[in-house]
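User: Structure with 5-O-phosphono-beta-D-ribofuranosylamine, tokens only please.
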Amino acid sequence: MVRPEPLRIGVLASGRGSNLQAIIDAIEAGKLDCRLAVVVSDRADAQALERALKHGLKGVFADPKAYPSREAFDQAVLAVLAEHRVELVCLAGYMRILTTAFVRALSGRIMNIHPALLPSFPGLHAQRQAFQYGAKVSGATVHFVDEGVDTGPIICQAAVPVREDDTEETLAARILEQEHQLYPRAIRLYAEGRISIIGRRVLVREDP
Ligand code: GRF
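Assistant:
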């Protein structure tokens, strides 16, 4: 599918922003034909905002304390995304659970990356969960966001074997390497119009 203009994406991030960086790098390297219209963070000190600034991108701090409720905060974030004409929202280490209204407003247009092979180990500290459980394989998942926590339709996954000599940290680092490959790839599939969602299944049309 040829777009008249590159897909406009918005990234929501609360912290380090290494996945944001992977997306920026893919765009700058010409491997991902998207426009990163805005980066929004709920934390003023998020490294993600510094990364946006460094690359000349628009970064917005939305202060949760400035709003009377989660709903009001999410409406404010929606307004920022609309102002920047964002077509796809990418959560990248965004440490807030989205409100129903937010998810419904952008249904099928929000992605998230999770550091485990969903549906195993949803929620916080997924790498630790997999390590402590004794799983032999973990990995990373990019999925669409629905109203649950890490429950939406799966777009793509990468498996990472757990080694005998792994610690939680070494496992997390190898998963992160895979995340940085996987997220730009998932966004590219979306941007190229190759993804359709049929119930829980995401079908990907391969290159002709
Ligand atoms: C990543 O492990 C991601 O899978 C999870 O949060 C972490 C964010 O890391 N959702 P970063 O901020 O992208 O470096």
